[in-house]
Amino acid sequence: MRLRRVFISALAAVSVVVGFGVPVVRAQISDDVVKIGVLNDQSGLYADLGGPGSVVAARMAVEDAGGAVLGKPVEIVFADHQNKSDIGAAIAREWFEVGKVDMAIGFDHSAVALAVE
Question: Phi and psi for 5 in degrees, rounded to 5?
Fold first, then answer.
């Protein structure tokens, strides 16, 4: 029994060192521009929680960070999901597939967040 535990522990240690079963994730920047999308309620019920203020805050954060990541400029884009999960999912899909958005933030409405996930 003890030999079995030692073997399993050794196998686990080797798999961590060698990388068996561990997915490799690499950051990618599309089109030499880091695009961050702010997807939230810009005009409705939740606009006071995020809305246009979140876009301004994201732009200020980019400015504070020097406006670039890994030597690539950072661009902020935004959209209004209108508190509708289908609209939010469609916007996010377009951003990632066509608009070359690298990251989306916001999601002040849980149904939209779950649809985009």
Answer: -65, -40
